[in-house]
Amino acid sequence: MIVQPGRVSLTQLEEIFRAATPVQLDRSVKPDVERAAAIIAKAAKGDAAVYGVNTGFGKLAKTRIAVEDTATLQRNLILSHSSGVGEPLAPHIVRLMMVLKLLSLGRGASGVRWALIELLEQMLEKGVTPIVPGQGSVGASGDLAPLAHMTAVMIGEGEADYQGQRMSGADALRRAGLKAVVLGPKEGLAMINGTQTSTALALAGLFEAWHLAKISLLTGAMSTDAAMGSNAPFHEKIQTLRGHQGQIDAAAQLRNLLEGSQIRDSHLENDERVQDPYCLRCQPQVMGAVIGMLRQVGYTLRIEANAVTDNPLVVGDDEIISGGNFHAEPVAFAADQIALAISEMGAIAQRRIALLVDPVLSFGLPAFLTPNPGLNSGFMIAEVTSAALMSENKQKAAPCSVDSTPTSANQEDHVSMACHAARRLLEMNQNLAHILGIELLSATQGIRLRAPLATSTKLQAAIKLVRQEVSALDDDRYISPDLVKAGALVREPSLLDGASIDLALEV
């Protein structure tokens, strides 16, 4: 894929994320990149102090560095800052980090040579993926530690994954037929200053949350039909009177999913309930708010993905200015918003599961969705599992962006905490997938118990896929594998194939 720095869309970023697509920068940006590199090279030989070019870093910015020590300065920066710990980030997230760094460097304000861009492109093409520990960034002076681990491989240090094997960065480059670079003035700083790790993690969280939002509409429609809930609250005029586009879109999808259901049509005249509980009735309002928030987050993260976020920056013809674009506050806020959306999707889905297993609320379904309650417990503890997962996500949804702490001898005295704010989204999405998997099985069981009445054609298509993985629950059995399979299924795009859900993240 050829990408244009400053103009990459969320759709392109998701394709890169999911398909491991090789990426190259549009060659039209090369003159600007080389012009900025020449300005930095000139500054490195000059008398004026330029941060990170001929000075130390952070609190050591007042220490001047001799021209002959420039390469050592940049190499030492990478080695000393490769201080991450914890489980390595998944390869597809590291690859997205690399692409985001390419986009930033390609704007022609960082002052790196074209050779660094070419090496990143070649590593992506040949599958040399740095091993990047997930912990160690506070999202302030850039994602220093994780980006240093990424850059270490480029200089023949650190570790990398190549053809499924973990090895030294030097061996990975050699086996792929690539050569390590010797960093020039400011190049090490340009590589590790920036928000690319936080942004890659936030984008990963966003893309998965958006998929699960569509799954939530599907499972919500299934639960509505299983409970013989009313589709009147999904009426178009109700939504337009409020005016939120996300709510309008959510209701339209729910109406579409339930269209033609015999279950709903069978009791229109005999339903004694005046109103359904909120978990059914207020789906457009809750999911609409989720959709609106995720779209806003997408807008923020698209800007950040295309941004220049290192320091100092080359601006104009020969001016080098220090600033603070590396501070990841926009990403931290975005990650906190995604966390809220994930938590709320799980909360309302869990209440729908609880409704289905409760014979007082489920409008005629047997207790715990088992044909023989008492002897069998059915979905009793599956619902408890969903409650446990919901509570975990509620706790994880507490904002990270408010938790600043001074670092680096008080030079970096306010930080964003964006990196772990975004990294926690991976586990939250996993929890949500399991909640929705339990709802998927519960609703499928409830719809089965409404036979001979049939649900809509679109929901039948989803049920068919479920039954290919998990058989109906008649008598109790060892149920954990069923829940695991359902949790995996809801993360697969195929579950939506017959649902005709038409929602765009980028509008």
TrEMBL record:
Enzyme class: lyase
PTM annotation, UniProt: Contains an active site 4-methylidene-imidazol-5-one (MIO), which is formed autocatalytically by cyclization and dehydration of residues Ala-Ser-Gly.
Keyword list, A-Z: Cytoplasm, Histidine metabolism, Lyase
Top-rank lineage group of the source organism: Bacteria
SUPFAM superfamilies: L-aspartase-like
Linked residues for 5-imidazolinone (Ala-Gly): 140-142
GO cellular component term, pick one: cytoplasm
Keyword set includes Lyase: yes
Pathway recorded for this protein: Amino-acid degradation; L-histidine degradation into L-glutamate; N-formimidoyl-L-glutamate from L-histidine: step 1/3
Modified residue annotations for 2,3-didehydroalanine (Ser): 141
Catalytic activity: L-histidine = trans-urocanate + NH4(+)
GO molecular function: histidine ammonia-lyase activity
Subcellular location field: Cytoplasm
Family label: Belongs to the PAL/histidase family.
PANTHER family attached to this UniProt entry: HISTIDINE AMMONIA-LYASE (PTHR10362)
Official protein name in the record: Histidine ammonia-lyase
Phylogenetic lineage: Bacteria, Pseudomonadati, Pseudomonadota, Alphaproteobacteria, Hyphomicrobiales
Gene transcribed to yield this protein: hutH
